[in-house]
Design brief:
By secondary structure, this protein is α+β, with helices and mostly antiparallel strands. It is built from 15 helices and 23 strands. Helix content is 33%, strand content 19%. Strands 11-15-16-14-13-12 form a 6-stranded mixed β-sheet, covered by helices on one side. Strands 1-4-5-3-2 form a 5-stranded antiparallel β-sheet. It is globular, with a radius of gyration of 29 Å.
Amino acid sequence: MAGIWWLIMLFPMLLIAPIRADPETRQLAYGCSPVPNGNATLFAQNLKEALDYVVENVVPSGFAQKNVVGASDLVDSVYAVAQCRKDKSVADCTKCIKVARKQAANCTSVTGGRAIYDGCFVRFENNNFYNSYTDEGNKQVCGGANASSSNSFSATVRSLMSDLCAATPQIKDYFAAHTRQGPSNTTVYGLASCIRSLQKDSCQKCLAIAKDNINKCIPRSEGRGVDAGCYLRYDSKPFYPSNVTIDLKHFLPGGKKKVSSTAWIIIGVVGGVFILGLITCLLLFRKQIMPPSQKQVDTEGATELRGPGDFDFKILKKATNNFDEANKLGEGGFGQVFKGTLKNGNIVAIKKLTLGRSPRAIAEFESEVKLISNVHHKNLVRLLGCCRQGQERLLVYEYMPNSSLDRIIFGEHKKPLSWKERFNIILGTARGLAYLHEEFHVCIIHRDIKSSNILLDENFQAKIADFGLARLLPHDKSHLSTKFAGTLGYTAPEYASHGQLTEKADTYSFGVVVLEIVSGRKSIDLNQPPDMQYLLEWVWSLHEENKVLEMVESEEKMEGYNEEEVVRVINLALMCIQGSATHRPSMSEVVTILLSKAEIDFQKPLQPAFVDVGYKVRGSSQSNATITESLNAR
């Protein structure tokens, strides 16, 4: 019975033809506004901030806007908008927006610029243009030969364009795609879209102008109406996936159909019976495929956990051979970690936590574990479940076969890593931190990012460990003074000296790890001779002498070495370890910079603040501040 229901649900999906992705980066319009009279440098800074924001935030919604108010609102302020066509995938939207942003940014020393493509749109001005729907550059872009059945084709196009222009302002997000069949086997594909910052009447006015323009393309087989606030297009061939089309009649005057109360009752009863039957079948199906031994925790299905799964202490004890030292993977500030093999053959990592025994400590454990069990990202070590046995508190994680980063780059498992592998580890770590800081519903600050807390799976993909075991940052505070929980050599100066904690503390630690990955050298190595410089001091001295490439591990150890890319990564790391937290980029900005292929104009970094083994912060504005809390080098 259950199998039949699954086939009924899956069968329609098998009939859907795959759609080929296309960012549609054909440029339709490009223009720059007049030269300003204000502070060009300040305007350029505000412009970069605004464009960076809209490009970074345009996905997944497909729209972003940002205004940065300058010292002189008339000439220094920047208003920016980025929008993708609603049928574009996240990947295609990202590709198109990057092209559009680069083109729009070519409008240098001006008060505005815009770049319009088939798939996306980027515009900036020094005035609020969000409800501006037209400009002198509105036009038509025609293509293809005349349609074979020109009369029927022309009539179908005009009919479809009129309906699209009338319906689109009534639709959420101002987007409509529709396919219309005309006489003589004529098929026309049409699409209309407005910038989402427009008011409803402005969208309507913009599309009216676009319709007048696009009618000039008829009877050509394809045409576009392009304006500052809207986009209208028809074609004799499909240019959007079939699953985005809508029935326009429900948005046209007199087109909405009322459903009688009797019909609603019938629909409700039938729908209720169907849903009840479906739920029953799903429960029966699950019961059949999940034997009792796997009910507690299924490591393959952990992404669906709504809370921590429960493991039996006896099972974990047996999996580790009574926590035998031979199975010990390591030991950190939160406790010992053991390798365990479950009854079903799955290998896991089991952490025996060292926690306080007070009711408060136990309550904090329950709340934090419940939270982090719902954190799922490919660059974060997945928590599979936990165990409570008397005073014992154990966490069960996915097992990482390639151990930790520190053991790979300068430990007992040291192996040569190609530049591609190193870059992917850097990027993966940045993505994991960006998720913790900005994408999860609570801001999680790790506090102890270091090479030993970055684990590597079988493909050497980076996964951050031990996140969420420190206190979370409250939403209503910009910083938090708290007990120190960092590691010597990786800790941000403001956190080490004053206990001030923001997500930028993780950015600092990330910068140190990046320099370790590039150089193959520890941040602080107490086994080095006393006169040997610490890593950050050494890198800074090379930077001042324009010799940063001398820090890179020898080429024979780094296959695929790319000088330009390595220098970009080193410069980014220097920005991450700035003494002032406000000068460091956010982790989402770090990800954007790492993924960008365009040339990055880095600000000139200031000398970082160095934390030495004498527990002093030296350099920058933190000179001679004594670290009052003991550094926990776990």
